[in-house]
Amino acid sequence: MVxxxxxxxxxxxQEDPGIFARTFERLGIPFTEPVAVSLLPTDxxxxxxxxxxxxxxxxxxxADGGSYLLAVEAQGRKDPDxxxxxxxxxxxxxxxxxxxxxxxxxxxxxxxxxWATIPFHLGTPMWRTLTLxxxxxxxxxxxxxxxxxxxxxxxxxxxxxxxxxxxxPQADTxxxxxxxxxxxxxxxTADLFKELTExxxxxxxxxxxxxxxxxxxxxxxxxxxAEKVREEGRVQSRAEDTLTVLEKRGLSVSGxxxxxxxxxxxxxxxxxxxxxxxxxxCAEDVFGDE
Length: 290
Known about the structure:
This is Transposase (putative) YhgA-like domain-containing protein. This protein is an alpha/beta fold and 290 residues long. It is 50% helix and 13% strand.
């Protein structure tokens, strides 16, 4: 059965395919940053009743006019049968799309990642007909993102780093850095990667840490702009309450007074007017000596 962590490990490349190029750039293997990416069908089944499916398949367009296929497979354990499947995937993709295919294996276990890194040869010892050399990302080579500034600079990479190193002793620090970065993100980005992180951590011990961090009120995951909008809404609401108090007390409120109160954006000033509205003898007195 496919686990939630398996799903998150490859799905994150659907959300931000650029993780692939940015991560390998840090490892000294340069790939051109994508300028356009298309999500392709993952069904590689032939006419015969033999079902074969990739986890994620992307068509990547680069700035130099090039194009290639990126097949992403999340691998949870060593499985010798996978070599033949991966070789089939690449041959089939090239035959179908006539584009160079790259196979990326993503792992949360270092032993599995090291196993997947070893080239697989088809043929005899005298003549190797085909050599399978997947790109592999795992705990052995994915950078640890353990501070808020680095996490905020590239949230998708920070999430992928957290998922890859979910069993690392620094997982707690990494999760706190990610939560701090999400605080600065826009609401949609925060919600998306908060959910993806929870999905990817599955039942690991780090998942409990993440759930505790997420128990912080939702306002934690809101940008400065969003908070400013909410503050403006609170000021507007208090201004309307001020007018309501004056009218309920039977005081005459001129158009000029109404316009001035509703037009104020200073929370402290509006709060003072509201307090005065309870005791003043005429509406104009809420402004005091201003």
